[in-house]
Amino acid sequence: MQTSILKEYREALLPWYTIYPTVPEFTATVRPESYQEWLRGLPADDPVSLYLHIPFCRSICWYCGFPTTIARNQGPILDYLAVLRDEIRLVWEQVQQGLVVNDVHFGGGTPTLIGAAEFLAMIQLLRRRFAFRESATIAVEIDPRTFTAEIAEAMGAANVSRASLGVQSFDPIVQKAINRVQSEAQTAAAVEELRRHGVSGINVDLIFGLPNQTVESCVQTAAATVAMRPNRLAVFGYAHIPSVIKNQRLIETTALPDSVARAEQAAAVAETLVAAGYQEIGLDHFALPDDELTLAQTSGRLRRNSLGYSADTCKTLIGFGASAIGRVGEGYVQNEVTRESYSRHIAAGRLATSKGYRLTDDDRVRAVIIERLMCDLQADVPAICAACGFDPTRLLDSAAERLAKLAEDGIVDIENGFIRVRQEHRFVVRAVAAAFDAFLDRVVPQHSQSA
């Protein structure tokens, strides 16, 4: 791809389309009362997923854009967990008591900082409040630098099936530049401990485009990670937005690779992983042939939600904790972002919803098209519209100018409304999805990085 086209598409400030419409479209017109009504309307026999946000870390990684707080001791964490338990009760009071749970995800921050006893207590509480399927998946994000044998044992006892480990880079020069020093030995020990306690699904997050990063160091990190044989990897491009993310101001801008170098890094990592037997999944994931993501992609069941690529087919995601995002049939909701505001709402006996978005029929069909493009690198727009009872003409007409340019630049092939992203350009699939974004000219750039 020519350098000018590469820069135009690859470095475009576009949403990551984990959800549509994206968070900048959320408004305060969706209030706690709205969410309460939506929860009450959930079908009792329709399985749901749960997300619990634990916004604490022992130190701040300078690249990270997630809302988190430094916790030097357990006091603030224990206070937060008490509020989280109250929120779970408030939500439980609105829904059918037998609401079926298919997936649970603990995100952060560093969820394992809550400690072994508190983690087990939280799992037990969720099982008392909701009806877990026997096959329910429980996933936890961990930081190998603070991971302990005790929490590994607790995860095993709780039947955790998947753990996601943040690595980013094993290059000590890069690690120093992002304030995240983590050895291969620490990471390998965490993987071994997890597997020893029955946590068989291992995910690893890597990032390219970091300060002082090179193609060589990216490949070395990928090779070291492959040696641990995780089931899947997420390979994100670092998004430098210091005007929005204050801790990124500590990163030396002049040390960041340019767009061409970033593309070379991403391609080199992908080549390394594919050569090691991993299959490309959507935009930025890689998985072993027998991983559920690969199987979901093969069968057309791959999904994309606020947590990224997933095999989870639940229509409803209930989010708990400060800043957590959820989705129910009518639309999206997000909790108060700050812990203080979130806690005040829950202490007052009301849901902590600060904003959200009520979906229209137009939003829903656009969301399906965007999801299929992001997951399958192709979308049959007329067929999707027909399944939704929607006329494809208006959507295709509104996207015509952008699609024509994408086709002219060799990014996509289009035939009778069927859009296919060329495999060599999968890294710019967001630009194709953006053709169907009705809010594109008003969106604020989003980023996607690992905890």
From TrEMBL:
Pathway(s) the chain acts in: Porphyrin-containing compound metabolism; protoporphyrin-IX biosynthesis; protoporphyrinogen-IX from coproporphyrinogen-III (AdoMet route): step 1/1
Keyword Cytoplasm: yes
Residues annotated to bind [4Fe-4S] cluster: 57, 61, 64
UniProt keyword terms in alphabetical order: 4Fe-4S, Cytoplasm, Iron, Iron-sulfur, Metal-binding, Oxidoreductase, Porphyrin biosynthesis, S-adenosyl-L-methionine
Assigned EC number: 1.3.98.3
GO cellular component terms given for this protein: cytoplasm
InterPro entries (alphabetical): Coprogen_oxidase_HemN, Coproporphyrinogen-III_oxidase, Elp3/MiaA/NifB-like_rSAM, rSAM, rSAM_horseshoe, rSAM_sf
Pfam family, one: Radical_SAM
One of the protein's GO biological processes: protoporphyrinogen IX biosynthetic process
Keyword Ion transport recorded: no
Cofactor(s), by name: [4Fe-4S] cluster
Cofactor binding note of this UniProt entry: Binds 1 [4Fe-4S] cluster. The cluster is coordinated with 3 cysteines and an exchangeable S-adenosyl-L-methionine.
Subcellular location as annotated: Cytoplasm
Swiss-Prot/TrEMBL catalytic activity: coproporphyrinogen III + 2 S-adenosyl-L-methionine = protoporphyrinogen IX + 2 5'-deoxyadenosine + 2 L-methionine + 2 CO2
Residue span(s) of domain Radical SAM core: 42-276
Record-level Gene Ontology MF annotations: 4 iron, 4 sulfur cluster binding; coproporphyrinogen dehydrogenase activity; coproporphyrinogen oxidase activity; metal ion binding
Residues involved in S-adenosyl-L-methionine 2 binding: 63-65, 109-110, 168, 180, 205, 239
Binding site for S-adenosyl-L-methionine 1: 51, 108, 141, 325
Family from the record: Belongs to the anaerobic coproporphyrinogen-III oxidase family.
Function: Involved in the heme biosynthesis. Catalyzes the anaerobic oxidative decarboxylation of propionate groups of rings A and B of coproporphyrinogen III to yield the vinyl groups in protoporphyrinogen IX.
PANTHER family xref list: COPROPORPHYRINIGEN III OXIDASE (PTHR13932), OXYGEN-INDEPENDENT COPROPORPHYRINOGEN III OXIDASE (PTHR13932:SF6)
Binding partners and assembly: Monomer.
Annotated protein name in UniProt: Coproporphyrinogen-III oxidase
